[in-house]
Amino acid sequence: MSNNKFKILIVEDEPxxxxxxxxxxxxxxxxxxxxxxxxxxKSIFTSYLPDLIILDLGLPDRDGLELIHYVRxxxxxxxxxLSARTTEADKIEALDLGxxxxxxxxxxxxELLARVRAALRLNRFSSNPTGVFQAQDLLIQYERRKVxxxxxxxxxTQTEYNIVAFLSEHAGxxxxxxxxxxxxxxxxxxxxxxxxxxxxxxxRRKLGSRPGHNNYIMNELGxxxxxxxxxxxxxxxxxxxxxxx
Length: 245
Ligand code: CA
Prior knowledge:
CATH architecture of the largest domain: 3-Layer(aba) Sandwich
Shape: globular
Strand content: 15-25%
Bound molecules: calcium ion
């Protein structure tokens, strides 16, 4: 590639945060654009078609959600929402509108860079993955539809395997319950959500049968599930949020 720099658009009105992220991304080799308003964000997006958007929701002219809606009318460009809003409803709304990930302020530089790398991998995966996925002790061989933990094969049902493979294709990013249900069963009725919970409980039990190896799939409580990032989530990965469902 003659120009292999990924282009990233930051839409954020707080100058301190903006310049912090700009400097971080710039020094990590990304071509970075900045927009302090939603309208300017739209205009820069249209002009430069960045590979990734980092989006603040609290913008002076409009709600950042409007930019997600605008972009998703035509493009699958990954969007990471960056916001001080922390309620589950806010996260769900942003993810359902088509945001790929959600980071709550304050965040660490390591976390932001890991999420950026994960989001940029979006276009590297197809719906029929080939090769292998590996994260810590977890290994998936896509062609053989086999899953191993610590070298030992884990017996999964077809549905359980499909869920694990789907989450691994999007590793590092939160997949909402409706998104997973659509991908696996093609519908979104309440029964499917219950089926997902049952399958997920079985998957987590099967993958986590060894002490200290229960964190391949994070439950982002009330939002969805996230498989750990193949390259970047190590022992310091955020603690799992267990639910009582
Ligand atoms: Ca703001």
